[in-house]
């Protein structure tokens, strides 16, 4: 259908407009992050990013991180998490597993062990149940380091956790006392 390179290019552009800068192509996300598919495609075409609904379907279905989702009748699309714009994704608080993982770059450790994991410009801190996924995330920013998060203890102490539609665990902040570097 489309090359892997083209799939990646479209996915990155969708991440930009559905997570961070919808104004780039003149769209508005509703309060829950949704935008009508027809409007998205029309505005993409108007800004020299012309794709068909079939290609959009392919990008959504094949995205390895499951970053995007359609509503039930596939009339709307949104990013599953990672927004820097204000949206309410209607997550329900859930009890997390005892341990979750966070991948980061080695150069970030000093700051992390001073302030904990902070959401910064995003809505939440992203955590994983899977070591390999966390390491892959960390490797995007430099030499990867794996942190273990005592999520069960945090939950017991009153912190809220959510799970995105693509199985990423989310929380607002991870204080230092719940963090430990996982040694190889």
From TrEMBL:
Sample GO molecular function, one term: transferase activity
Gene3D superfamilies recorded: 3.20.170.30, RNA 2'-phosphotransferase, Tpt1/KptA family, N-terminal domain
InterPro entries hit by this protein: Ptrans_KptA/Tpt1, RNA_2'-PTrans_C, RNA_2'-PTrans_KptA, RNA_2'-PTrans_N
Record has Iron as a keyword: no
The entry's keywords: NAD, Transferase
E.C. code: 2.7.1.-
Keyword check for NAD: yes
Superkingdom field: Bacteria
Sequence similarity: Belongs to the KptA/TPT1 family.
Function as written in the Swiss-Prot or TrEMBL entry: Removes the 2'-phosphate from RNA via an intermediate in which the phosphate is ADP-ribosylated by NAD followed by a presumed transesterification to release the RNA and generate ADP-ribose 1''-2''-cyclic phosphate (APPR>P). May function as an ADP-ribosylase.
Protein name: Probable RNA 2'-phosphotransferase
Source organism of the structure: Ohtaekwangia kribbensis
């Amino acid at each position: 259908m489309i090359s892997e390179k083209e799939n990646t290019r479209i996915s990155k552009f969708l991440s930009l407009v559905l997570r961070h800068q919808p104004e780039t192509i003149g769209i508005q996300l509703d309060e829950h992050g949704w935008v009508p598919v027809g409007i998205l495609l029309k505005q993409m075409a108007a800004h020299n990013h012309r794709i068909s609904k079939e290609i959009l379907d392919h990008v959504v279905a094949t995205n390895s991180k499951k970053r995007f989702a359609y509503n039930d009748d596939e009339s709307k699309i949104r990013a599953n998490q990672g927004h820097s714009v204000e949206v309410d994704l209607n997550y329900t608080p859930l009890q997390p597993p005892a341990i979750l993982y966070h991948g980061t770059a080695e150069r970030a450790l000093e700051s992390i062990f001073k302030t904990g994991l902070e959401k910064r410009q995003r809505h939440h801190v992203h955590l994983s149940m899977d070591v390999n996924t966390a390491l892959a995330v960390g490797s995007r920013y430099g030499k990867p380091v794996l942190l273990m998060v005592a999520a069960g203890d945090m939950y017991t102490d009153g912190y809220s956790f959510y799970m995105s539609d693509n199985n990423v665990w989310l929380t607002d902040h991870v204080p230092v006392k719940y963090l430990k570097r996982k040694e190889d």
